[in-house]
């Protein structure tokens, strides 16, 4: 017990290293080496404490008592504890999924490092929102929650999670602007979701293909007849595909956008006829080549050409002022 009190006086990072060492049986040097490797892999976008948390999670060590900063939360982490200020009005939605039916509540919280979406599934947690115990501007304590998501991180609370009004106050300014974790192209692996910030070097010609309206699979066309292997004769849907070559200074990568993502890239409303207009597309090409974008998507191997590709799910032009604010 005396040891425990002594440890509390140490800095959080040393505490984390100690706990990893004790629970994993690894030497301290090895624990530090792994933390350094993790930091390098994440391009230094994570703090020492954050990298230690990930190393711990990978070793199956949980940190139920350890409070984390929002910027250090990574998808896949379990049983995390955080404090944050509610920065928007919580919304409650009904959901129905096969035999399950109920409500879920979501809102965002922020601390001085970042902000994140919170999702409540438990009725007793949702009740705290409904009866006004917790509302916008309240500082809340979350314990034992999981970080889920695909491109965007979300903290999900289940019935084992704890939610309470915090006794702490957050005096410093909270970061309400979204700060996605950006990865270097050279460091993303195959079949991995990632956000990259890169310049468009090349913009290839757009092409079109037809898919089954039922399953989205490519159809075979014969004259004006379209056939899906699964659904037979169908009225096909036209889809567009656009490739761009992007570079973030670490490496370049071929990125592919389909319909919705193309409209996002071109910054226009969904209108297929625009994509078929060569002079409009040429104008857009001149506008986009050389511009920097934030791309959200997933890498995959193109076996046909034996190269890595990035499938763009969403993208937005990088506002230079935003970058200056965020990185200086
Ligand atoms: Zn089909």
Explain the overall architecture.
- Strand 14 and strand 15 (252-258) form a beta hairpin.
- This protein has helices at residues 2-8, 12-24, 28-41, 48-58, 123-130, 259-266, 272-275, 278-288, 320-327, and strands spanning 67-68, 80-86, 91-97, 100-110, 115-120, 139-149, 153-157, 162-165, 193-203, 207-211, 220-222, 225-228, 232-234, 237-247, 252-258, 292-302, 307-317.
- The chain contains nine helices and 17 strands.
- The chain is globular and about 70 Å long.
- Helix 2 (12-24) packs parallel to helix 4 and helix 3 (28-41) packs across helix 4.
- The strands form three sheets. A five-stranded mixed barrel has the order 2-4-5-7-6. A five-stranded mixed beta barrel has the order 9-14-15-17-16. Strands 11-12-13 form a three-stranded antiparallel sheet, with no helix packed on it.
- The two termini are 44 Å apart.
- It folds into three domains: 1-61; 64-179, Nucleic acid-binding proteins (OB fold (Dihydrolipoamide Acetyltransferase, E2P), Beta Barrel); 185-209 and 239-327, Beta Barrel (OB fold (Dihydrolipoamide Acetyltransferase, E2P)), CATH 2.40.50.140.
- The longest helix has 14 residues, at 28-41.
- It has 328 residues and is of the alpha+beta class.
- Residues 1-10 and 323-328 have low confidence and may be disordered.
- Zinc ion binds next to loops.
Query: CATH homologous superfamily of the largest domain?
Result: Nucleic acid-binding proteins
Using only C-alpha atoms, the radius of gyration works out to 24 Å
Shape: globular
Order of helices and strands: HHHHEEEEEHEEEEEEEEEEHHHEEH
Q: What composes the largest sheet?
A: 5 strands, mixed, barrel
Oligomer state equals: single chain
Q: Which structural class do the helices and strands define?
A: alpha+beta
**How many strands in all?**
17
- Beginning-to-end CA distance, first to last residue: 44 Å
Strand fraction: 35-45%
Ligands present: zinc ion
**What would CATH call the architecture of the largest domain?**
Beta Barrel
Number of helices: 9
Percent range of helical residues: 25-40%
Mean pLDDT, as a whole number?
A: 84
CATH C-level name of the largest domain: Mainly Beta
Low-confidence region ranges: 1-10, 323-328
CATH topology of the largest domain: OB fold (Dihydrolipoamide Acetyltransferase, E2P)
What strand line-up does the widest sheet have?
2-4-5-7-6
Count up the domains.
3
């Amino acid at each position: 017990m005396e040891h425990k009190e002594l440890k509390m006086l140490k800095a959080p990072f040393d505490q984390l290293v100690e706990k990893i060492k004790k629970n994993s049986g690894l030497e301290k040097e090895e624990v530090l080496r792994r933390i350094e490797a993790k930091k390098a892999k994440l391009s230094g976008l994570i703090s020492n404490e954050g990298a230690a948390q990930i190393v711990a999670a990978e070793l199956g060590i949980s940190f139920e008592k350890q409070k984390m900063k929002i910027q250090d939360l990574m998808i896949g982490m379990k049983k995390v504890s955080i404090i944050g200020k509610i920065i928007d009005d919580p919304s409650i939605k009904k959901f129905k999924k096969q035999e399950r039916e109920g409500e879920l509540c979501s809102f965002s919280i922020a601390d001085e490092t970042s902000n994140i979406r919170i999702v409540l599934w438990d009725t007793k947690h949702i009740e705290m929102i409904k009866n006004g115990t917790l509302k916008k501007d309240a500082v809340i304590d979350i314990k034992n929650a999981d970080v889920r998501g695909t491109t965007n991180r979300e903290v999900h609370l289940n019935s084992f999670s704890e939610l309470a009004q915090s006794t702490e106050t957050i005096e410093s300014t909270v970061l309400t602007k979204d700060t996605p974790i950006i990865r270097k192209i050279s460091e993303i692996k195959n079949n991995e979701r990632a956000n990259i910030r890169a310049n468009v070097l090349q913009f290839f010609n757009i092409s079109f293909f037809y898919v089954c309206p039922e399953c989205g699979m490519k159809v075979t066309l014969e004259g004006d007849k379209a056939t899906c292997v699964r659904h037979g004769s169908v009225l096909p849907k036209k889809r567009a595909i656009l490739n761009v070559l992007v570079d973030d200074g670490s490496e370049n990568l071929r990125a592919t956008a389909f319909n919705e993502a193309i409209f996002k890239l071109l910054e226009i409303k969904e209108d297929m006829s625009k994509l078929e207009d060569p002079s409009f597309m040429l104008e857009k090409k001149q506008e986009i080549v050389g511009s920097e974008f934030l791309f959200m998507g997933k890498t995959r191997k193109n076996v046909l050409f034996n190269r890595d590709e990035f499938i763009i799910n969403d993208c937005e032009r990088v506002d230079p002022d935003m970058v200056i604010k965020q990185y200086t």
